[in-house]
Automatic annotation (TrEMBL):
This is Purine-cytosine permease FCY21. Residues 1-43 are annotated as: Disordered. GO terms for molecular function: transmembrane transporter activity. The chain crosses the membrane at residues 85-109, 115-134, 155-178, 190-210, 222-243, 255-278, 290-312, 348-373, 385-407, 413-435, 456-481, 493-512. It is found in: Membrane. Belongs to the purine-cytosine permease (2.A.39) family. The keyword Transmembrane applies.
Length: 519
């Protein structure tokens, strides 16, 4: 590695950049802007105009034009490693964990103590793979699902990109609904209804996701402060009523494991995009620090806010004003009711709570833009920034419709996504640790390998392990619309079975694949 110096903003510049002069990145920059030709239809003047616009966006507005291509060693220059902590903390410091925690007491019928213990244990457990996989970004420069090509192959990985797109889009819809309902709850829907609120939250998130990596990290660096203050104020205003918990029977195994599966499903999908947020960090970034920042930044606010949500959910049926707020605007309505005694200041705090969703939504939408590019090989040529507009339109349209039965949609959504995410983690981590011995050089020695389908693994072993585990996962599912025969006795064991069985199946299948296919 060449010696490097760090500037005041924590960005490392290497002597190699200075020696090559101002023209060094020109050709590479043109390659990164490749995609203009898709719209130019061979017209050189139109191509030149679009490239000029992209150049202005990149240089003057700081918009990230690099898509999901691996970030070269000399472009991985960020050394402010604490940024990864503030990013995860801001993504988790909002109304979403509170809303999810309410499901434990309102929908699953758990008492506050039991719901809190489930939240604590399953969050601490399911955050581990996210923290570990986030450390891969600085060492490979690869987005998470680009790195997955080394496991699933260039083409089979598209199935999991599609699943991840569905998951992230679902989270984005949930974020938009929560934020929109919070804005609506400020004046009981008389000034801004939930539909208008959804549009406002989605458009604000578009601004951040459009600009890309650096803007996202700068925004998340400070966004958690007003969000945390607003949550503390709301808790202080309604805290005296949190002790009015509903009396419920002792928790059953089915309730504990099923709600635990829901909590794990909230956390595990982050693993499929973990390295997306660390690819520009310096290759020598200390893995333990990156993992620790990720783990604490994600687990700490999630646990505290989910437990708060469980407490709010347990008290809501016993407090008429909270119940009325819940019926009109779900979790956001309850928080608005908690803040009602504070008058105009309480309404202001409710607005801040609504805007806290932008931190989570903008980061999720940023990853969606990258996933769109990865979905099909030819989509690499379409600029990432265009997909930010596409996903915003999708989120607004679906969120407006889904808001009418929010809690049922949330429970169904979270209950399903944990299964595929657990299988994906089991296969990818097993391949890296067992098959490759944790050697990152296997991904980076040949810089062109990531995009050469004929040299990457076929992906049959990974696909077989991921699909093969479903044979036992389905009987272990415990959902509103389906309960498997095993789950009927034990509760939901789907994500645990998916992780263990996919990892166990992958090892022999991968050795067989290498022997038959030679790669």
């Amino acid at each position: 590695m060449t010696p490097a110096t760090a500037d005041a903003e924590g960005v490392v510049s290497s002597p190699r950049d200075e020696e090559e002069g101002p023209n060094a990145g020109r050709e590479q920059g043109r390659k990164e802007k490749d995609g203009a030709g898709v719209y130019a239809s061979g017209d050189e003047s139109r191509t030149s105009s679009l490239l000029s616009i992209l150049d202005v966006l990149e240089k003057r507005a700081g918009v990230e034009l690099r898509g999901c291509q691996p970030v070269p060693w000399d472009k991985r220059t960020v050394t402010q490693y604490a940024n990864i902590f503030t990013l995860w903390f801001s993504m988790s410091c909002n109304l979403l964990p509170i809303t999810t925690g309410m499901v434990g007491t309102l929908s699953f019928g758990l008492g506050l103590r039991d719901a809190s213990l489930v939240i604590l244990f399953f969050t601490l457990l399911s955050t581990i793979p996210v923290a570990y996989m986030c450390t891969w970004g600085p060492r490979t420069g690869m987005r998470q699902l680009i790195q997955a090509r080394f496991v699933y192959g260039k083409y089979f990985v598209s199935l999991f990109i599609l699943l991840n797109l569905a998951t992230l889009t679902g989270f984005s819809i949930v974020d938009s609904i929560i934020g929109g309902q919070a804005l609506s709850a400020v004046s009981s829907g008389t000034t801004i209804n939930a539909t208008v609120g959804i549009v406002i939250i989605a458009l604000l998130s578009l601004l951040v996701s459009f600009c890309g990596f650096r803007t996202l990290h700068k925004y998340e660096k400070y966004a958690w402060v007003p969000a945390l203050l607003a949550i503390v104020i709301a808790t202080g205003c309604g805290g005296s009523d949190l002790s009015r918990q509903s009396t419920v029977p002792p928790a059953t195994v089915q309730q504990v494991l099923s709600f635990g599966g829901l909590v794990a499903s909230f956390m595990l999908p982050w693993a499929a995009l973990a390295s997306d947020f660390s690819t520009y960090m310096h290759p020598t970034a200390p893995p333990f620090r990156i993992a620790l920042y990720t783990y604490i930044g994600l687990a700490l606010p999630t646990i505290l806010l989910m437990v708060l949500g469980a407490a709010i959910g347990g008290a809501t049926p016993n407090i008429p004003s909270w119940q009325a707020g819940y019926e009109s605007n779900a979790a956001s309505g309850v928080l608005a009711a908690m803040l009602h005694p504070a008058g105009g200041f309480g309404r202001f705090v409710t607005v801040v709570l609504a805007f806290s969703m932008v931190g989570n939504l903008s980061a999720t939408m940023y990853s969606i833009t990258l996933n769109f590019q990865m979905l099909l090989p030819w989509l690499f040529r379409v600029q990432r920034i265009l997909f930010s507009i596409v996903i915003t339109a999708i989120v607004i349209g679906v969120a407006i419709k889904a808001a009418s039965s929010f809690f049922t949609n949330l429970e169904n959504f979270l209950g399903l996504i944990g299964y595929w995410a657990a299988a994906f983690i089991g296969v990818v981590v097993t391949d890296h640790v067992w098959i490759r011995g944790g050697d990152f050089a296997a991904y980076t020695e040949d810089e062109a390998l990531w995009d050469e389908g004929k040299r990457l693994p076929m992906g049959w072993a990974a696909l077989g392990a991921s699909l093969g585990c479903l044979g036992l996962v389905v009987p272990c599912m415990y959902q509103i619309w389906f309960t498997g025969p095993i789950a009927a006795r034990t509760g939901d064991l789907g994500f645990e079975v998916a992780f263990v069985l996919s990892a166990g199946l992958y090892v022999p299948l991968r050795y067989l694949e290498k022997r038959v296919c030679g790669r």
